[in-house]
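Is this the right way to post structure tokens for a design question? Let me know if I should format differently. Anyway, here goes:
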């Protein structure tokens, strides 16, 4: 916006800050061994949680992840024992001990969060590995189809195994 308003100095400063943020995200939150992003406490650097969550895919949504992090999709998103469930994408992987497909943030698929993962995967496929395009298309089709049953509508969240709407109201 600063650039559009002609404020070159602010635009340059903000671009520099964005680059620093991207590098920090990639270097501080990425775990090579587990091929995933994890939250950390800002002061101590300790893991805030030692388990995967749907947010592990968000750096691609933010266009901050690169080719070296593509393993997060291959190892975690496409795994049917983790996130690749019939009605995508659960908040926690199915393999997590606290996973519950009907429990609030412990398993259901949330349309807004799922849309972030779809965009993340599509971005990764277009920018880093076009071989991921079929999975991106499949994910989009499955997520969209869930909202057409029995009629075009949205629930706040869904059971990722059965597709049943879980909220008392529709969005």
């Amino acid at each position: 916006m600063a650039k559009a308003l002609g404020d070159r100095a602010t635009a340059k400063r903000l671009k520099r800050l964005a680059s620093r943020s991207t590098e920090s995200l990639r270097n501080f939150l990425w775990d090579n061994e587990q091929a995933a992003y994890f939250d950390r406490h800002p002061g101590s650097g300790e893991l805030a949680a030692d388990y995967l969550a749907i947010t592990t895919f968000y750096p691609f949504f933010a266009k901050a992840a690169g080719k070296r992090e593509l393993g997060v999709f291959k190892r975690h998103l496409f795994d049917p024992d983790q996130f690749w469930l019939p009605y995508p994408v659960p908040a926690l992987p199915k393999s997590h001990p606290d996973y519950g497909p009907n429990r609030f943030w412990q398993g259901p698929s949330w349309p807004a969060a799922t849309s972030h993962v779809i965009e993340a995967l599509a971005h990764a496929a277009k920018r880093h590995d076009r071989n991921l395009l079929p999975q991106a298309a499949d994910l989009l089709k499955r997520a969209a189809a869930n909202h057409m049953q029995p009629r075009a509508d949205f629930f706040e969240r869904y059971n990722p195994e059965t597709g049943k709407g879980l909220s008392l109201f529709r969005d």
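Format looks fine. Someone answered above. Worth noting: The longest strand covers residues 30-31. The two ends are 31 Å apart (CA to CA).
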